[in-house]
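Marked as duplicate of an earlier ticket. Keeping the data here for the record.
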Amino acid sequence: MAVLLSALLLAAPVLLVASSPVYGSNNRTVPLVMWHGMGDSCCNPLSMGAIKKMIEEDISGIYVLSLMIGKNVVEDTENGFFLDVNKQVSMVCDQLAQDPKLQGGYNAMGFSQGAQFLRAVAQRCPSPPMKTLISVGGQHQGVYGLPRCPGESSHICDMIREALNRGAYSDLVQKHLVQAQYWHDPLNDDLYKKHSLFLADINQERAVNQTYRKNLQQLQKFVMVKFLQDSVVDPVDTEWFGFLKTGQAKETETLQDSVLYKEDRLGLAAMDKAGKLVFLASEGDHLQFSREWFTSNLLPYLR
């Protein structure tokens, strides 16, 4: 992620869909919580640190919390690979609940896997309330492929790929590998639904948790950014909550064509009807965008 976000000032932007921004009550600035992606950390000056600084420069007085999962940036980076996602989400929920600056509500912005993790926060932890969720290249229906890992830890990525290929749904891999917890194998749908410790739960694959459904619908906006030339996320449709059709690994379907939407198991159809879902796209590769694109298309939802 750090390498890709270093292209922040270089990538050409494209806006495909727009919608009205959300403003805080009494025109006060709403705090922002950010969660980084795989291979990155909360405070990398080339990625999350640069984005935090940019937002603070553009929105006067805003409080930005860039989440650190662990005691330092090394732990934070490692935990993005090896710490149970459910534990990470629980840690973040506790942190947000104890932050006095967030008690009136906050906006959230997740990058890559950090986006689906923040959606889990919205579904499981409604207090303090999340107002707007911005998913920047998030994988909301999971992934079925790891073609190229971001960052510079290629040996870790090779190990992850081997583990996923050997047995993504084994207890050992599920409990100790973050990426396995949102691995979605359309050729082994029953295994995925039974053994996925994270994604199958937050996507209501086993049963409908009405609390999840109710909590997610409390969002004022759910903004999803898709990178049209993405070479990291497979399939890229997952960034707009689409995925591969079950039983094969070639044809994809949109969110609106999915059982999740048609049965409205998560409340997304109701949110769509209410104008709460926003689909944006950028022409670049994974997490590559210019400051101009970011300012024009995402900052309005934070002001």
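See parent ticket for discussion. The first helix runs from residue 2 to 5.
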